């Protein structure tokens, strides 16, 4: 915490972080005619938001309504109540469900770059349809956009993840990913997606298009709105600490700019949107047993700065043991790659170091890693876990971004990402798992797969499990693993970012342990303890709340400024009349 003193710059509202939460709050307060400045630590804008799939869990939003989804806010609240656990203020849950449609409506009317910019994907289910989630899903996605609209700033957009990038200017959206998997079973669907990709390559070549999809599209659209509104965004300006006055009110931030300390006065409020502690290994080791390496997919700038700065002015924290867990494989250069469709394919099963299955492989990524960490905590190593597949599955599926038909990269084997053997017992020896145990698990799995029912872990029973599965099998999630050679891929407990942090109320104000609000300090996104608690409601369940509480915070800040200016006007007129 820094003390009051001379300031280098003055504005009404300082927003710390240029991800989804930061940009949305800045747009709201700008609309209320307040001066706002966004400061960003990275040389890029967009944070993890720009790396993301660009989905928002947005029940009852214009895009879901346009798509024809009839939904009820009460059912959404009941679903969340059932899954989020007991560390979440139910007032925040209600507020989220009430505000998310309003936020989305406002966003879509705000700027030509955001008009009708979201699309509902029918049939990408909520993650727990069996506990009240909607089987058709409540996720909406940002539509693709030509990034050339950013002009020179195109090079300042945070790069996306490798997995979603295709060569020669081809691109795929989250919707297309499922269609792309149809290359597995050929026919008309395969031809259609290949023609689509060829058309996109042609346009990129002839017209120079540079289409941004998913999180790249969301961050581009928000950045264009910020630019049109004339809101300044300073890159390479990390906040170091918060500045408070004698009464404990937050009045600004101490940052670094051009290599020297730079103090910014916030006349009305500071909004923290600096993301999670994704790459702060020290903090994570302290709170998250089992996490002793950096497996996070989050933006490199997310090192918990906002959480620590908030704590230093008295903020409470919660859910520090949690993250948006997501299993990853590690490429030879060490970079993590998220693993979702692979776990829903039929010809694979996943074991721990004892050679035993420990979870429904196809379960939502959060639940998968939670089971991996809980299992690891029992003393049996689950890190890495091993995904066992056979040659048929290898030849049929897209695995770790590798398309069927091309040879396995030798570097994968050399780096230990995958091991290969002609028999299951030989494979077991290679990965250090007891051969008898792995053979027994293999035999049991094949027996269940032949019957088409996973009596042990219920794989394939949830609509979620089947989304990326292979519908050409009687049970799209199950088929025997019986064509040699066999392969074992190593899986680590990664994440999309952390989700524990500053405790906030339903108005996005940052709270102390005693429940009182820290004056003029607001926060949203991964710098806060998530309204989703220990769960992940459905696709977009991190960005949906991040943007919604940024919207709420923006409105609260505008209201507080209004109140303050009314008070000032009243006291001025009292003085004049006195
Ligand atoms: C591969 C991947 C896919 C994902 N897919 C989805 C999805 O489809 N749907 C979904 O809901 N979620 C998804 N997520 C998660 C989602 O992207 C994040 O939870 C979300 O973007 C968090 O938003 P935020 O605004 O809180 O933080 P960010 O978008 O991470 O923004 C935080 C910003 O703050 C900056 N910052 C940090 N410290 C400072 C400092 N001291 N001073 C100034 N700036 C600072 C950071 O550099 C960063 O730019 C995905 C994440 C990843 C990595």
Key phrases:
578 residues, alpha+beta, 8-stranded mixed β-sheet, 6-stranded antiparallel β-sheet, 19% strand, globular
Q: Could you characterize what this model shows?
A:
Strand 9 (239-244) and strand 10 form a beta hairpin. By secondary structure, this protein is of the alpha+beta class. It has 16 helices and 21 strands. The mean pLDDT is 94. The protein binds flavin-adenine dinucleotide. Flavin-adenine dinucleotide (FAD) binds at residues 16-22, 39-42, 47-49, 51-55, 161, 238-239, 273-275, 297-299, 301-302, 305, 324, 338, 496-497, 525-526, 540-543, 546.
Q: How would the blueprint of this fold be written?
A:
Layout: E1 9-16, H1 20-31, E2 36-39, H2 47-51, E3 55-57, H3 62-67, H4 73-83, H5 90-110, E4 118-120, E5 139-142, E6 145-146, H6 174-180, H7 187-207, E7 211-212, H8 214-229, E8 233-234, E9 239-244, E10 250-257, E11 260-272, H9 281-287, H10 305-312, E12 317-318, E13 323-330, E14 336-338, E15 348-351, H11 365-377, E16 385-390, H12 391-396, H13 410-414, E17 418-421, H14 424-431, H15 435-451, E18 486-498, E19 501-502, E20 509-511, E21 517-523, H16 543-577
Parallel strand pairs: 1-2, 1-11, 2-8, 11-21
Antiparallel strand pairs: 3-5, 4-5, 6-7, 9-10, 10-11, 12-19, 13-14, 13-18, 15-16, 16-18, 17-18, 20-21
Flavin-adenine dinucleotide (FAD) is lined by residues 16-22, 39-42, 47-49, 51-55, 161, 238-239, 273-275, 297-299, 301-302, 305, 324, 338, 496-497, 525-526, 540-543, 546.
């Amino acid at each position: 915490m820094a003390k009051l003193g001379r300031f280098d710059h003055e504005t009404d509202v300082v927003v710390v972080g240029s991800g989804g939460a930061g940009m949305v709050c800045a747009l709201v307060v700008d609309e209320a005619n307040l001066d706002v400045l966004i400061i960003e630590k990275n040389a890029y804008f967009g944070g993890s938001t720009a790396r993301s799939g660009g989905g928002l869990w947005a029940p009852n939003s214009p895009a879901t309504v346009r798509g024809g989804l009839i939904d009820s806010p009460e059912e959404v609240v009941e679903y969340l109540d059932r899954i989020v656990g007991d560390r979440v203020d139910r007032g925040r849950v209600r507020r989220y469900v009430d505000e998310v449609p309003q936020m989305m409506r406002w966003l879509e009317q705000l700027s030509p770059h955001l008009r009708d910019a979201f699309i509902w994907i029918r049939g990408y289910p909520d993650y727990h349809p069996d506990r009240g989630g909607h089987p058709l899903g409540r996720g909406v996605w940002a539509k693709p956009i030509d990034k050339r609209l950013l002009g020179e700033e195109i090079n300042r957009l945070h790069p996306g993840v490798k997995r979603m990038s295709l060569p020669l200017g081809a691109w795929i959206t989250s919707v297309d990913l499922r269609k792309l998997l149809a290359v597995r079973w050929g026919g008309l669907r395969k031809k259609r997606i290949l023609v689509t990709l060829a058309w996109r390559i042609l346009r990129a070549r002839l017209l120079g298009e540079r289409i941004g999809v998913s999180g790249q599209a969301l961050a581009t659209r928000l950045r264009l709105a910020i630019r049109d509104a004339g809101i300044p965004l300073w890159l390479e300006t990390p906040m170091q600490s918060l500045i408070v006055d004698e009464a404990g009110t937050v009045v600004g931030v101490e940052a670094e700019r051009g290599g020297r300390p730079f103090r910014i006065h916030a006349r009305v409020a500071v909004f923290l949107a600096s993301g999670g502690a994704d790459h702060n290994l020290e903090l994570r080791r302290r709170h998250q047993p089992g996490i002793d390496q950096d497996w996070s997919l989050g933006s490199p700038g997310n090192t918990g700065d906002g959480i620590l700065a908030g704590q230093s002015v008295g903020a409470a924290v919660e859910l520090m043991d949690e993250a948006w867990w997501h299993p990853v494989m590690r490429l030879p250069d060490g970079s993590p790659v998220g693993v979702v469709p692979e776990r829903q394919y039929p010809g694979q099963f996943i074991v721990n170091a004892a050679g035993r299955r420990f979870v429904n492989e196809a379960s939502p990524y959060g639940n998968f890693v939670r089971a991996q960490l809980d299992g690891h905590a029992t003393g049996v190593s689950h890190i890495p876990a091993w995904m066992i597949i056979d040659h048929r599955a290898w030849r049929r599926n897209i695995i770790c971004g590798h398309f069927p038909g091309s040879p396995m990269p030798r570097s994968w084997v050399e780096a230990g990402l995958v091991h290969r053997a002609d028999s299951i017992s030989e494979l077991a020896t290679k990965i250090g798992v007891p051969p008898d145990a792995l053979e027994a698990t293999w035999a049991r799995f094949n027996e269940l797969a032949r019957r088409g029912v996973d009596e042990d872990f219920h794989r394939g029973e949830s609509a979620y499990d089947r989304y990326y599965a292979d519908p050409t099998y009687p049970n799209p999630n199950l088929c025997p693993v019986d064509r040699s050679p066999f392969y074992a891929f190593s899986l680590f407990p990664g994440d999309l970012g952390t989700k524990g942090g500053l405790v906030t109320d339903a108005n996005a104000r940052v709270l102390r342990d005693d429940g009182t609000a820290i004056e003029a300090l607001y926060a949203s996104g991964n710098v806060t303890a998530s309204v989703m608690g220990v769960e992940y409601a459905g696709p977009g369940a991190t960005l949906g709340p991040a943007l919604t509480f940024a919207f709420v915070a923006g409105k609260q800040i505008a209201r507080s400024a209004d109140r303050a200016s009314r008070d000032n006007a009243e006291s001025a007129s009292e003085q004049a009349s006195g």
